[in-house]
Design brief:
about 10% strand, two-stranded antiparallel ribbon, mainly alpha, about 90 residues, Arc Repressor Mutant, subunit A, single chain
Length: about 90
């Protein structure tokens, strides 16, 4: 996966809320790419499995690179805010 050097990619990382939404009527409120039923967890799984951003875009042509990078930014924020090394903050 390429590094996040482009201006728009960095902006997507900083503004993940522009690309990720939560709606209790879509997948029970799990985070999805805005305007889709594509769960953030699916994108993260593809990236963790070694798929490139370009490969994901071929599978889901309605997505953007910024949306995919926003999934990573969302995951990072969840980890930073919610847990450290497997235990939850109280």
């Amino acid at each position: 996966m390429p590094a996040l050097h482009g201006t728009s990619e960095v902006r997507a990382v900083n503004d993940w809320r522009q690309y990720i939404e939560f709606n209790r009527h879509i997948l029970g409120g799990k985070p999805v790419v805005k305007g889709t039923r594509i769960p953030v967890s699916l994108i993260l799984g593809y990236l963790a499995g070694g798929m490139s951003v370009d490969d994901i875009l071929c599978e889901y042509p309605t997505l953007t690179k910024e949306a995919i990078h926003a999934c990573l930014a969302y995951a990072r924020e969840v980890i930073v805010r919610d847990s450290v090394y497997g235990w939850r903050k109280s």
